[in-house]
């Protein structure tokens, strides 16, 4: 079973996101052949994970700033992500959350802050001014260079993949225990992996693949295949 952790700043936000969470659930089930359980992040604790036959975890993206989250509600999830041996995949904001969790003890900080890619340059148009005006946003299908071609996450994929991007923040510095897997000119840390455990983060959205751009599906299939082997 896959546990899909929904990152939402409130229960109302979680319920409002039901449509796209169900679409992602279906994508993960198709890519893995396994059922997918969706839960709001405050519900995900060490005890919760121990009570379910979970084989892998996927942490969702989110369109909110980190400082909108109740930090205390992240403690249980942080304990799970730092302690479990289950394969994990963080997507977009979930990838950035891994960057925070594996770089610091959340119980020792007062707040988490966004790490924007960069300010727009003079005369550079803001294509999405309704979302964090004045900052560069990487949007749409974009090329990403695979730096570690031998990593099983990219098995059977080309050296440059086309994947869906939708973010204005990034992981500025790799956590100490992680290695860089993929990059592009806009955002250095496009994919990363823990050195010892099957813990992955992708800044892009592999679940947003299309018929014309199917590389994301290959990444999901590889991750769930890896999870099955680990089981």
What is the strand arrangement across the widest sheet?
Answer: 2-1-3-4-9-8-7-5-6
Instruction: Spell the H/E element sequence.
Output: EHHEHEHEHEEEEEH
Supply the CATH architecture: 3-Layer(aba) Sandwich
Q: Briefly, what CATH class?
A: Alpha Beta
Question: Strand content of the residues, in percent?
Answer: 15-25%
The class by helix and strand makeup works out as alpha/beta
Number of strands: 9
Q: What's the average pLDDT?
A: 96
C-alpha termini separation: 11 Å
Percent of residues in helices = 25-40%
State the low-pLDDT regions, or none. Answer: none
CATH superfamily: Class I glutamine amidotransferase (GATase) domain
Radius of gyration: 17 Å
Counting DSSP H or I runs of 4 or more residues, the number of helices is: 6
Count of spatially separate domains: 1
Largest sheet data: 9 strands, mixed
CATH topology: Rossmann fold
Give descriptors for this structure.
single chain, 231 residues, 21% strand, 26% helix, Rossmann fold, alpha/beta
How would you describe this structure to a colleague?
There is one protein chain. This protein is of the alpha/beta class and 231 residues long. The chain has one domain: Rossmann fold (3-Layer(aba) Sandwich). It is built from six helices and nine strands, in the order E-H-H-E-H-E-H-E-H-E-E-E-E-E-H. A nine-stranded mixed sheet has the order 2-1-3-4-9-8-7-5-6, sandwiched between helices. The model has no long low-confidence stretch (mean pLDDT 96).
């Amino acid at each position: 079973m896959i546990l899909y952790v929904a990152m939402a700043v409130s229960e109302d936000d979680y319920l409002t996101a039901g449509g796209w969470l169900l679409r992602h659930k279906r994508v993960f089930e198709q890519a893995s052949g396994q059922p997918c359980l969706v839960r709001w992040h405050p519900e995900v604790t060490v005890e919760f994970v121990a009570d379910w036959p979970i084989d892998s975890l996927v942490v969702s993206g989110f369109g909110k700033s980190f400082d909108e989250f109740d930090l205390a509600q992240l403690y249980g999830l942080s304990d799970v992500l730092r302690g479990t041996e289950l394969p994990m995949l963080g997507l977009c904001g979930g990838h950035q959350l891994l960057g925070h969790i594996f770089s610091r003890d959340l119980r020792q900080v007062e707040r988490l802050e966004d790490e924007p890619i960069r300010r727009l340059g003079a005369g550079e148009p803001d294509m999405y001014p309704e979302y964090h005006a004045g900052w560069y946003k990487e949007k749409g299908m974009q090329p990403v260079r695979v730096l570690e071609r031998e990593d099983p996450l990219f098995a059977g994929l080309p050296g440059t993949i086309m994947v869906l991007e939708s973010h204005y923040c990034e992981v500025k510095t790799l956590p100490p225990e992680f290695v860089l897997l993929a990059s592009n000119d806009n955002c250095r840390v496009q994919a990363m992996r823990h050195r010892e455990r099957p813990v992955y983060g992708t800044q892009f959205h592999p679940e947003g693949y299309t018929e014309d751009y199917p590389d994301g599906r290959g990444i999901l299939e590889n991750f769930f295949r890896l999870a099955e082997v680990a089981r």
